[in-house]
Design brief:
Layout lengths: L1 E4 L2 E9 L3 H10 L8 E6 L5 E7 L13 H20 L2 E2 L8 E3 L5 E3 L6 E2 L17 H4 L3 H14 L11 H6 L9 H4 L6 H14 L10 H5 L7 H5 L2
Antiparallel strand pairs: 1-2, 2-4, 3-4, 5-8, 6-7
Helix pairs in contact: 2-4, 4-7
Length: 236
């Protein structure tokens, strides 16, 4: 829930108390520009839950406003950098949704809410069911590739004009196809060139492969031709 405290806009998260090993791992990753740093942590009287306040310059729904090639590209880089960082530090976020991405004062995407996070080596993980859930999670549990699938949904949503009206139909269609490149909404988004549109569709399809073993990693996604600086120059 996003609310205002004094002059600050904050995201309030109610979260279960995580295990000591997970808490330690999370504390190690928070000194990173695309990872949210808690402003305040308040323990619940039962000691089972706590309330975490994250400062956010703009809430998640601001990401959906004024969408353009430049902003979609920038937010995608921020989200992928956050996932690259947490995966490199042995963590899975396991609840990558648009609601858990806010904008910083520098207008960069910042990942929040690590309630369902776990160590990559752990096999028992609390699953958060959502429209962003990768297809393999219910059977085998989350993995780094599951975070990538969820990020792919967010990135695809940002190129769909009907986002606010029908944000679940895309996921239903994607789960029935191995490729997303034929999605008319994504193909019709305003790209600087035909080549950049094809690269975008290719990137999303590789992030949302049904088989998690075939999905690209966050690091590989950041190296994708879609993020070539030459496309920004075409806009000038």
């Amino acid at each position: 829930m996003v609310s205002r405290v004094g002059h600050k806009l904050v995201l309030k998260v109610t979260t279960k108390v995580l295990g000591a090993r997970v808490q330690k791992a999370i504390s190690k990753i928070q000194d990173f520009s695309n990872i949210a740093k808690p402003l305040l942590v308040l323990e619940h009287e039962t000691n089972d839950y706590c309330y975490i306040l994250y400062e956010c310059h703009q809430p998640h729904y601001a990401i959906c406003k004024n969408r353009s090639f430049t902003t979609v590209r920038k937010y995608s880089i921020g989200l992928l950098r956050a996932l690259e960082h947490i995966h490199a530090n042995g963590l899975i976020h396991a609840n990558v949704t648009l609601h858990n991405v806010v904008l910083s004062q520098e207008n960069e995407a910042v990942l929040t809410n690590f309630e369902h996070s776990s160590l990559i080596a752990d096999t028992n993980t609390d699953i958060k069911f959502s429209d962003y859930l990768a297809p393999e999670v219910e059977q085998s549990g989350p993995c780094p590739a599951s975070d990538i699938f969820s990020a792919g949904i967010i990135m695809a949503y940002l190129t769909i004009e009907s986002l606010a009206k029908d944000n679940t139909s895309l996921l239903k269609r994607v789960k029935n196809h191995d490729k997303i490149s034929k999605e008319k909404e994504i193909s019709d988004f305003c790209y600087p060139s035909t080549e950049s549109r094809e690269h975008w569709c290719d990137l999303i399809s590789k992030m949302m492969q049904k088989d998690p073993k075939k999905r690209i990693s966050a690091n590989q996604a950041l190296q994708h031709p879609f993020f070539d600086e030459k496309y920004l120059k075409l806009l000038k």
